[in-house]
Amino acid sequence: MNYLGIDLGGTNVxxxxxxxxxxxLGRASLxxxxxxxxxxxxxxxxxxxxAVDAGVGWxxxxxxxxxxxxxxxxxxxxxxxxxxxDFRDVPLAALLxxxxxxxxxxxNDANAAALGEYAAGAGKxxxxxxxxxxxxxxxxxxxxxxxxxxxxxxxxxxxxxxVIEYNGRPCTCGRRGCLEAYCSATALIKRTREAMQAHxxxxxxxxxxxxxxxxxxxxxxxxALGDAAAGQVIDEYVSYxxxxxxxxxxxxxxxxxxxxxxxxAQGETLMAPVRYILNRExxxxxxxxxxxxxxxxxxxxxxxxxxxxxxxxx
Length: 314
Description:
Layout: E1 2-8, E2 12-19, E3 24-31, H1 36-54, E4 61-68, E5 71-73, E6 78-82, E7 87-90, H2 92-100, E8 103-108, H3 109-120, E9 128-134, E10 138-144, E11 147-149, H4 179-183, H5 185-198, H6 203-208, H7 218-224, H8 228-252, E12 256-261, H9 268-281, E13 292-295, H10 301-308
Helix pairs in contact: 1-2, 3-10, 5-8, 7-8, 8-9
């Protein structure tokens, strides 16, 4: 059985044909236009192009899954709101069903990415997995007992807005002290710039070439060179991330906890100290069966694979 997955982004529409095991057989990508009908047309064109690239006849595609940003109502197939494209109450599944003549499954892109990692990446073979992605914000998703968990209103697992510091730093959601305000790549960059201003002799200046040159790698690179200011930034970042991970593990106790996004590219430089905190603060630390903390494996393909395999995990 072959499935087709769509990763709808603000810049590109990516499509892939995926088999039962989650292997990508062919893919295509087109720029994302503006306007509801042009977006639906672009998705349909990318879908057919991916099938051609895979050498698969359209009749061999079972279903089409779409991972979209924004507030999603999967049962109705509607994008309630997505600010980037000014989508409001868009019946995307119906629009695509008319164009593609296939059963359409719609889901939030973060949930789709988590499902992709569970089905074919870091969580493959596990009974349950919670995933977080450290990017511009902090996204998340969970597959529990083999089923994608979204909450009764499809708004569950907004882990970025789980408070880890009461009345702490302001968050874009309007709350204070959210995980996103401390552990997103955006937050890491902001704290790095603050450290640079406080420590004019820091190696951070040399590596970044100025505050505008800071990215998620900068503090890690400077800390590796022994820079004290960068070391403080990383220690704080790891402490908050470890706190958030341990708290989420204590709520769900999944078999696998997966971390993705830009900072996760640091590998064990990031994962080892977070794992140390988890081992210390996991409520189940004295049990034989413990949550495994791992890095995401699929990168940008996670959303494509997860979208394609949506009908298998609902």
